[in-house]
Design brief:
This protein has helices spanning 5-17, 20-54, 63-85, 95-120, 130-142, 145-168, 180-255, 260-291, 304-313, 316-322, 343-357, 403-408, 415-425, 466-477, and strands spanning 300-303, 325-330, 336-339, 364-372, 375-382, 429-435, 439-447. The chain is α+β, with helices and mostly antiparallel strands.
């Protein structure tokens, strides 16, 4: 997913707001620990330079300036440590802004001190310049991105100004250019520690994120399974009384003796009951498939040509009455897929039903089935209303219906969800391409069954589990 800069800033701000005071304080404490090491490193540089001057290796060295910088950094760090030590979780009003202000001040001072150290120990070509990258990396982790960019801009500007000053003004050049090789003794370990620190921090964070994602995925899977079980049980329990009411309305119509108004009301009631029963059947089918998605069961070999022909035949009359041309394109290939009875036909029925339903008069729905090496491909293409932009990725969600589809007719919003669930369970994949006003193309790819010879008519082997019988029954009722 692509994020704009504004979105990134908002996401960082949000992460700091939700428990952000504790997070910010913990990061500042880590910064304090690293600043102790930074101040000590500058003091080491001062001692090394003093030793070189005392030994006569250098005529002059700004070891006193370096010592002052190191002591100044340690003194400021001590103040920061004392402030954080007095931090209390029960007094968080406005504390996040204060902690950010402390972080900005500490990092800004670090930039100035290390720029001065770089200048005093050899100039802008000093390898200690790598420390600036480390400081800016800390800024990116401690501050919102906008403030981190400001810090980076200030650092870049000061570094360029320092370089220009050293080039343009001889008097401003580093007082100890011969000291640059010695700076490597400190710079190289700092660079190595910087790389190790960042790599370790990144890996630890990735591991924590991965752990949380796995835990969240397990929780979501359990919730989805609970939802599927609830839908299956409730659909099954609701269907029985509805079927009884449907039978009563049919019996009343058969008995007769109703006036036209009563008969019309009874017909409408029966139609509504049938719609609800259809939706319950689809909910039962979808929940049964999802609940048993990890189970293994026996399958039979279903001929592609047979399933596609029967599915198209079921909608020929509906398409003809609506003025839609329904075509089937397939050869004589007897390729088979491994599936339970009516699985492939159920998928095709949902896809063809949608295509015919949302294709206006004069349009065309084309169903093509072909053998594609190790797979079979079934394609349902129409010249209908299409799917609006931005909604294509949602059409396979349960109960979702595109905005223009809701204007054409009613529906359950489960057809594509059921089709996708069946295709995935059969080890295949489903791809949808569409443009609003230009039609929709749904492609289903399924692996060929290698347990049946081409041209054979192997009967379905009945599953030995109750779960498979549920799938079989549900697919028929849908």
């Amino acid at each position: 997913m692509n994020l704009t800069q504004t979105t990134l800033d908002h996401s960082v701000d949000a992460s700091m707001s939700q428990g952000g005071v504790d997070v910010q304080a913990a990061r500042l404490r880590r910064l304090v620990r690293m600043r102790w090491a930074g101040g000590a490193a500058i003091l080491v540089l001062a001692l090394l330079e003093w030793a070189l001057v005392a030994a006569g290796k250098l005529a002059y060295g700004p070891w006193m300036w370096l010592g002052a910088l190191g002591l100044g950094l340690l003194a400021h760090n001590l103040v920061t440590w004392l402030i954080l030590k007095g931090y209390r979780t029960d007094a968080q009003t406005g504390l996040l802004k204060k902690l950010r202000l402390i972080a900005n001040g500490a990092l800004g001072l670090d930039l100035l001190i290390w720029l001065a150290t770089i200048h005093l120990t050899g100039g802008v070509l000093n390898p200690l310049a790598a420390v600036l990258v480390f400081i800016l990396g800390l800024a990116a982790g401690l501050l919102p991105l906008r403030q981190a960019y400001i810090q980076a801009g200030i650092a870049a500007g000061l570094y360029v100004a320092l370089g220009v000053g050293e080039i343009m003004f001889p008097a401003f050049r580093s007082p100890s250019p011969s000291y640059a090789p010695l700076a490597w003794l400190v710079a190289v370990p700092v660079i190595l520690v910087t790389v190790v620190y960042f790599m370790g921090a990144i890996l630890r964070r990735l591991r924590r994120i991965n752990h949380r994602l796995l835990a969240a995925n397990r929780e979501l899977s359990a919730l989805d399974l609970t939802k599927s079980r609830f839908l299956r049980v409730s659909s099954h329990q609701l269907r029985a009384p509805l079927a009884a009411v449907h039978s009563f309305t049919s019996a009343i119509q058969a008995v007769g003796g109703l006036n036209p108004k009563q008969f019309d009301l009874l017909r409408k009631a029966r139609t509504r009951i049938e719609d609800v029963m259809t939706q319950l059947d689809e909910m039962l089918l979808l929940s049964t498939i999802k609940e048993n998605a990890a189970e293994t069961f026996d399958r039979g070999s279903v001929k592609l040509t047979t399933a596609s022909s029967e599915a198209v035949a079921d909608f020929e009359e509906e398409a003809r009455s609506k003025g839609v041309t329904l075509r089937l394109l397939q050869g004589n290939d007897e390729a088979c897929v491994s599936a339970w009875p009516d699985a492939l036909e159920t998928v095709l029925e949902h896809l063809i039903s949608n295509a015919v339903k949302y294709t206006p008069e004069g349009g065309t729905v084309t169903v093509s089935a072909r053998n594609a090496g190790q797979n079979v491909e079934v394609e349902v293409a129409d010249t209908g209303i299409g799917i609006p932009p931005g909604q294509l990725e949602q059409v396979c969600r349960e109960f979702f219906r595109a905005t223009n589809a809701r204007q054409v007719c009613s529906g359950t919003g489960l057809g594509l969800s059921i089709s996708q669930a069946i295709v995935e369970r059969l080890g295949g994949r489903m791809k949808i391409r569409s443009a609003q006003g230009e039609g929709t193309n749904v492609e289903v790819v399924l692996p060929i069954s290698h347990h049946a010879q081409a041209g054979s008519d192997e009967p379905y082997k009945e599953s030995s589990t109750n779960q498979d019988k549920q799938l079989h029954t549900s697919s028929r009722t849908s």
